[in-house]
Structure formats: structure tokens, C-alpha cells
Design brief:
It is built from eight helices and 13 strands. The chain is α+β, with helices and mostly antiparallel strands. The protein folds into two domains: 6-227, Glycosyltransferase (Alpha/alpha barrel), CATH 1.50.10; 228-258, no CATH class. The protein has a three-stranded antiparallel sheet with strand order 1-2-3. A three-stranded antiparallel sheet has the order 8-9-10, with no helix packed on it.
Length: 258
């Protein structure tokens, strides 16, 4: 991307941070700080809409030379999981964009073993642009299933109210889901891994690098606070589950601690 390239995922995370900052400033009685954050967020939203939307999903990055990475015009790396899910989590995407981006993610990246980091895999892209090209197709950064990022897709679907899809994505990388097919995963069915081979590789479904991943903390956070919906808030405890239809119960209102 070059030294002055722009990461779209980071832009979404900055947007998320500005929103949180504004809400904290409101609570602390700092109206000038809150106004500053919201003004910056409006400016960032306009830039995102102008530069990062590719018609069906969001770009991955914009190079220092203006090249648009993660576009449908690319032969390799047309779409990335990270920008689609953070577009939803950050609130930057409009409702139609959120649904379009997540539908594109499902159609192009979802596999029975988890969601690929990107697709199609890299073969000819220079390593200065995508270091993952050094790996075989379908593992780690070269269109592999990075388990750390799976929970973000679950959270995005929960935010959109899609309990069935959220749980489907969660179960795809859940170790216990492989209790009766451990020979496929080749890892203990109680351990999260860093990465899993995607379906563009002959080892599809096999996982690698166990015991060394941020996946476990994200999966716990996602199951507890988003699927089960038990979230601590300043006013108290909110219980707002988003279950798959087969196990759905009535959604509860927030429970105030006072």
C-alpha cells in the first residue's frame, strides 16, 4: 500500500473510537469534547462513503498511489472479512450497505469451517502489498480461515438481528463442534487455534497453531455478551440475547441496577 496508504478497517475502528469517546464525554459533562468527536465522525463518515464503498462491499485499503485494494475489479483479494464486519460494528455502514456487505461475505468467504480472511487467494500479488502471498492458498493470511476474526462476523450478524446466521458462524469454528470428527480438525476439541485451512486448499478443515491465539477471548466475549446478550452497562446489566430461531426465547429488556 505504501507508507501513506489507508487501511479501511482502521478507518472503521477510528470511527468506533470517536463514537465511544463522544458518549464518554457526554457522561463526564464535556460537551466540547463530545462535539469535537461527533464532528470528526461526520467528516470520517463522508470520506468512507466517498472512497471505501465498492458497490457491494467495502474495500480493504487504498494505496499511496490511489490503488483500490479489495475491489471486485481485482483478480486476487477481491473481498476481506475484516472491513465488512467492522463496517457494521462501527456503525459506518448504512442499513442497505450492512446487509449487502454481509451477504457478499457469506457468498464469497463463508465455508463449513469458518470464514476466509479474503478471496480469491494470492498468487501474483507482490509481497510488499500482501505478505500472505508467501503462504500456500487457503492458510493464514493467504485466504485462510483466521479464527481470531470469526467472532467479529458473529457480532456483526447479532447487531443486524440475525441469530441463525450468527450461530452458524460461531459453530463453524467452535472446537466442541468437532468432537465427533477430531480426525478432520487434527486438534484437541477443547482448544481454539489461530488458523484453519480453507476450502481452496486440499487440507480444508484442518486447524493449526493451537494454544496461541486471541480467538479464545473473543469467542468467550461473543458468546456471553452478544449471542447470550449478557452485557454490563453503566446503568446495570443488559440481557438481550439473539438466539437462532430453534432456541429463541423472548428478548428481555435491560435490567437496571438502579
Amino acid at each position: 500500500m505504501g507508507y501513506n496508504g489507508e487501511s479501511v478497517m482502521v478507518a472503521f475502528q477510528v470511527r468506533f473510537g470517536l463514537d465511544v469517546y463522544a458518549k464518554i464525554a457526554d457522561r463526564l459533562g464535556l460537551p466540547d469534547d463530545a462535539a469535537w468527536a461527533r464532528t470528526e465522525m461526520v467528516r470520517l463518515d463522508a470520506a468512507i462513503q466517498q472512497a471505501a464503498w465498492d458497490g457491494e462491499w467495502f474495500l480493504w485499503a487504498i494505496g499511496a498511489d490511489g490503488h483500490r485494494y479489495g475491489s471486485k475489479l481485482e483478480e486476487e483479494g477481491q473481498i476481506y472479512i475484516n472491513t465488512q464486519v467492522w463496517a457494521v460494528i462501527s456503525g459506518a455502514a448504512t442499513a442497505p450497505q450492512s446487509r449487502s456487505a454481509m451477504d457478499a461475505l457469506k457468498a464469497r468467504l463463508a465455508t463449513p469451517y469458518g470464514i476466509m480472511l479474503s478471496a480469491p487467494p494470492f498468487t501474483n500479488t507482490p509481497s510488499t502489498v500482501m505478505g500472505g502471498v508467501i503462504y500456500n492458498h487457503g492458510i493464514k493470511e493467504n485466504a485462510g480461515i483466521f479464527c481470531h476474526t470469526q467472532s467479529w462476523a458473529v457480532i456483526a450478524e447479532v447487531l443486524l438481528g440475525n441469530g441463525d446466521q450468527a450461530y452458524e458462524y460461531y459453530r463453524a469454528f467452535m472446537p466442541a463442534a468437532y468432537n465427533d470428527r477430531a480426525e478432520l480438525r487434527e486438534i484437541e476439541p477443547y482448544v481454539h487455534c489461530q488458523t484453519t485451512y480453507a476450502t481452496c486448499n486440499r487440507n480444508a478443515g484442518k486447524s493449526r497453531v493451537p494454544w496461541l491465539s486471541g480467538t479464545v477471548s473473543w469467542s468467550h466475549h461473543t458468546a456471553l455478551q452478544w449471542i447470550l446478550g449478557v452485557r454490563p452497562e453503566i446503568e446495570g446489566l443488559r440481557i438481550d440475547p439473539v438466539f437462532p430461531r430453534a432456541g429463541r426465547v423472548s428478548r428481555c429488556a435491560a435490567i437496571s441496577a438502579g
